[in-house]
Design a protein that fits this description.
This protein has 506 residues and is of the alpha/beta class. It contains 17 helices and twelve strands. The radius of gyration is 26 Å and the shape is globular. The structure holds pyridoxal-5'-phosphate. The site of pyridoxal-5'-phosphate (PLP) has 14 residues, from helix 6.
Length: 506
Amino acid sequence: MVVHLPKNRVPLLVEESRPGRRGEKVVAVPKGFKAADLVPKALRRLTPPALPELTQPEVIRHYTRLSQLNYGLDAGMIPLGSCTMKHNPRLADLVSGLEDAARIHPLQHPSQIQGALRIMYESEQWLKEVLGMDAVSLHPAAGAHGEFLGLALIRAYHESRGEGAKRTKVVLPDTAHGTNPATAAMIGYEVVEIASNADGTVDLAGLQAALGPDTACFMLTNPNTLGIFENQIQEIQKAVHAVGGLLYYDGANLNAIMGKASPGSMGFDVCHTNVHKTFAIPHGAGGPGGGPVGVKERLVPFLPNPRIVKRGDRYEFADSSKSIGKIREYWGGFLVQLRCLAYLLLMGGDGLVESSEIAVLNAAYMQKRLVGAYELPYKQLRKHEFVLSAANLKRERGINAKDIAKRLLDHGFYAPTIYFPLIVDEALMIEPTESEPKDELDAFVDALLAIAKEDPAVVKAAPKHAPVARVDDVWAAKNLVLTWRHLAKLEERPRPAARSMVAPAA
Ligand SMILES: Cc1ncc(COP(=O)(O)O)c(C=O)c1O
């Protein structure tokens, strides 16, 4: 499958603009009035706005061409490990677009928005069950924001026990997602990273050595970012709790374990889940997402205000005097959560379990077909994602993970996550998700197998068929193109052919 894309750069609207062109008239001027009379004099602009002037078909074509430059899930699979790009049922989309839901305001009196409060409350009940936690806050806007809330709760908990000043460290493994150490540092903790063992999992001895009376918490994702389930999870949680530390579960990989295990049953005190990965929210380009946080009983009083409570058959807001306060405006992304609840109801409990099973099966199938042509560091069983290494191809054929990722674009596929986790040399991190049929998995695997045998010169020159050729990272960083004015200037400058940012028309 090759996606046919426009070959050349789509001009910007300002470049396409021609004086005097226009689309539809937006204001019907009542008889006897001039258009200018409709706006009070004091509010009128002195000069016309510098907007592009185009006809309606030109604007529509502009955006259609741009959309054709994009590769999305509706065009083919996106095997980005850790990012979980999966199909979001259109029904969930439809529900979240309903006017009754979209037109309410968070400042309305609870008596007027009982339905919305019920949606939030019921979402919390579902997530409590899936996470195995005692309470859930829907406030965070993303996974990293959930981590921020989780660590703020942990800090509040230690402070409430008079241990805030002494518990200064967050321990995490070297497989951790970058947001984990970043969040811990933002909250003000010292980050202690421990090396993984030969199995690619937490090294228990290393963990014990890092733990002490200064431990605030241990952060972990399970399955970890190699896709490996931490089978010593009970020993890990006992060791952390034994020193008075808490456990934070990064639930970004929850889509691998639903109905089989839960952060709560593994002994974790706080966790977030990314609704834009495990449930149904489009993921990418910065949102809108959601990172609900689940907590065990002892952390409930510190959750952000307001919480939604059910009294009889009424839903109300309730504040806790021990709350850490607000982490965002109002009480969470309502439409995001509505979409999530629609997905949960659509799937049902059994459907969620099945989705995890298929996600794991799909990953196992692809891994089995690819191992041999690519290396598989660490021999443990993988769950919903797996990390291959292209180190063998680098040694034998001189091509690296980046070359392979670029060449995949020519084969009509989105590239997997590369160079993460950091402990794998020339990493290719692949996550098929449960949405992909076997044909699509096979086509992607076939492309990767073909690339491993292709002429290295062709692979290194890829992409050949994409609208933008390979960018020279160093040159791009030194010549930042941040606005269309920059771009125009840049195009005036002679550039060495090898550094061309735009693919040749051939
Ligand atoms: C393991 C893991 N943790 C945390 C995050 C952060 O989530 P978000 O992108 O929603 O902030 C991600 C995102 O990809 C992730 O894969």
